[in-house]
Amino acid sequence: MGDVRPMKVVDRIREAIFAGDLAPNQRLIEADLCAQLGASRSHVRNALADLVSEGLVERIPNRGARVRAITLAEAIEFTEIRMVVEGLCAAKAAARVTDGQAAQLRSIGQRMRQYEASGDLIEYSNCNKELHAFIRTISGQSAAGDIIERIRGNLTRYQVRLALQSGRAAVSLPQHLEIIEAICARDEGRAEKAMRSHLRSVIEALENTRPATSNGDPW
Prior knowledge:
Layout: H1 6-19, E1 27-28, H2 30-37, H3 41-54, E2 57-60, E3 64-67, H4 72-96, H5 99-118, H6 121-139, H7 142-163, H8 168-184, H9 188-208
Antiparallel strand pairs: 1-3, 2-3
Helix pairs in contact: 1-3, 1-7, 4-6, 4-7, 4-8, 4-9, 5-6, 5-8, 6-7, 8-9
């Protein structure tokens, strides 16, 4: 495999973190990454430096780099940021949505209904991600999308835990359907309120996962 451009190396390592292929606290050995990605040592080193600046990777003195594990408190802070930014995106989406996009939103909502009813939490979670991403696309807020993408990897394992939490889909489904209907109704204030309410519910669910003896350490 030929050498890979630096940004490609960054993207591939980042996506591996997002997907959980590289686990929290896992050591990132440059030689191994070079072999896996077909990239030069300098490109891998530069990519890791970029990911350190993004907060996805940390360097440990005398031990090299590893995937950074974030605390529950940090996950809640990131979700609070999402609440503000995605609330804005929902409002902008309501102002810009076309009839065709509204139909697509309702189609996603219908699939979410079906997966929640059948108990298929993996597909329900996939639809959840699809819905949020599509709303950001409709909004046209590219800077907001960049912010969400930058923090997405830090939230991945917490989102997976919530997605598989018993009863969580039944709670979030009506919230998502309200977001969809508010956007389709082109009601900006209602859409922003619905998105904020949904993500506030996510924060409450995260709080409820905190062990009674939690000292703030990562899971």
